[in-house]
Design a protein that fits this description.
Two copies of one chain form a homodimer.
Chain A (H helix, E strand, L loop, with lengths): L20 E7 L5 H12 L4 E5 L26 H12 L4 E7 L4 E8 L4 E6 L6 H4 L4 E5 L3 H15 L4 H19 L8 E6 L13 E6 L20 E7 L5 E7 L5 H16 L11 E3 L2 E2 L1 H18 L1
Parallel strand pairs in A: 1-5, 1-6, 2-5, 6-7
Antiparallel strand pairs in A: 3-4, 7-8, 8-10, 9-10, 11-12
Helix pairs in contact in A: 1-7, 4-5, 6-7
Chain lengths: 315, 315
């Protein structure tokens, strides 16, 4: 992949700034980005991570939207050049004064100092939109839930914490569809890892059943050798198959099933954690947490694979 | 001056970003920085200038001050590293997302995009504090009014537009004195031009008399050859003498008197404007404006000399 050559190489040594390992989590609104990111930050420890959302680079406040010919998904709604500049600064070990978009109030508020840590985790609508931004990341992820799942998540979140009614959320999804197709979904092509959380279509599981995950591992970066841990005892909960991506490219596709008995889920998460993250410690409680008290093995496996990449990048 | 070698050199050519000419106007609170800067921006035209204040890099809001062991004059009260970063970006022709400190409300508000123009004019408390910041400027100015003049200016401004009482302003000046001596006044040593607006001590002029100016022109940058325009007819209003600076260094000292008859003031401003700024046009109305309807020839001469440097820098 010639573009990978652009990736800013890290160098740390006497007298040099430490360059962080940078992970992007891209996806549409309410695709689960913050849930995935929160588990990574909690596992690594907040003192080792800087976290930012590219939504902070919104050029407008919510009250400005009425007069605009585009939605927040459009690059012109965002300070894209400044976002690129800040990603480049962080990637080269320099601090930034990050703008802050407050999703509750819809206002741009007091900026915050972000100093690069060992790991920089970036989520948002458009972190993989431009070549310059992509070049800043060591690992890139795209969250790709089916639209009906995302719609449900978005209604639940925006009515609970952003002050909208369900009708408003549905109207907004419709208004955004064109820009979603034009600017958000094309980022899928630039991800090293593509994750789809979804129910298994052929099954009718009870409502509390965790969603399953399909994790595509592209050969754009060195991927962990999953074959080494996927023993036959795990085949009901997790299996790997060689597949073709939607564009025909060959890809490794890991399926993690949410409907299996809890002991199988625990075994699967443990296998991935021990094999690829940390053989010396147990699986931390925060891994796979959907919300307080609710765990998902497919989410935990996904996060463990991303932790593997972050820790490999830091070596 | 070895430090001058650090100054970022401008280069504009095919495929290169245009690097602006950068001017710093440093000085204590209410030293007249904004008044000097406003005339420069108005003369050059706002479309050719980017203007910013380093006070925008305050780390705290007014409400945070009570618990802090220092005042806004202290470098630790400001994001100095980010200020340096932003000056470097502008000096190399790149845009910044500038924080905004609202002096009226004392709040840090919605940031603003600043794109470099032909000229970047920066005023503030600490633009010349650090070597990295100084290296970004083509011309540096320090405003050095006597403390009693500055005190009067500060009381007038802060009670009129920042919501303070006179007693509060005086108490604040006292609280700041140590940091003023430690961090603000040392910047005087790094200025190419030092300007002192003051009444002439030996005279008792009526209250509306414009202040006179002493303009020190240091040989740290090529200074205009004032001898070429200072004909004997101007000697009452303006004269140049070789002097020693407070640190003993040789310096050209231009005195411009505020108390002379208006026709002499007009002649002096015209001589400087025609000789060093623009021989083809008349002196613009905005030059030397202290407030709407009030003009000062010493201010106009000062601004004309700074315009000379800005335009020379752009050649």
């Amino acid at each position: 992949m010639p573009e990978k050559a652009l990736r800013i190489s890290r160098a740390s040594g006497p007298g040099r700034r430490v360059r962080p390992v940078m992970l992007a989590i891209a996806g549409d609104s309410a695709a689960g980005k913050t849930t995935v990111a929160a588990g990574l930050v909690a596992t690594l420890g907040p003192d080792r991570c800087a976290f930012l959302s590219t939504d902070d680079y919104h050029r407008y406040e919510r009250a400005d939207r009425a007069g605009l010919p585009f939605t927040p998904l459009h690059p012109d709604y965002n300070y894209m050049e400044i976002m690129e500049q800040h990603l480049q600064l962080l990637a080269s070990g320099q601090p930034i004064l990050k703008p802050v978009y407050d999703h509750r109030s819809g206002r741009l508020t007091r900026p915050e100092l972000v100093e690069p840590r060992e790991f920089v985790i970036v989520d948002g609508l458009l972190p993989l939109h431009s070549k310059l931004a992509r070049a800043c990341f060591d690992v890139t992820v795209y969250l790709d839930p089916p639209e009906e799942v995302r719609r449900e998540w978005k209604i639940r979140r925006d009515t609970a914490s952003r002050g909208y009614g369900a009708g408003q959320v549905l109207a907004e999804l419709e208004r955004r569809e064109g820009e979603s197709a034009a600017y958000i979904r094309p980022q899928r092509a630039y991800a090293d890892v593509v994750v789809r959380f979804a129910p298994i279509p052929s099954r009718t599981d009870p409502p509390a059943t965790p969603l399953s995950a399909e994790v595509l591992l592209r050969p754009t970066i060195p991927q962990p050798d999953l074959g080494s841990v996927l023993h036959p005892g795990l085949s009901q909960v997790m299996h790997l198959r060689l597949a073709r991506d939607t564009d025909g490219r060959p890809v490794d596709s890991l399926h993690v099933h949410g409907y299996v008995p809890p002991e199988d889920s625990v075994a699967a998460v443990k296998a991935i954690w021990t094999g690829f993250v940390d053989a010396a410690t147990g699986v931390p409680e925060c891994l796979g947490q959907v919300e307080p008290g609710v765990h998902s093995a497919p989410l935990a496996v996904t996060q463990a694979l991303l932790l593997h990449h972050l820790l490999e990048g830091a070596r």
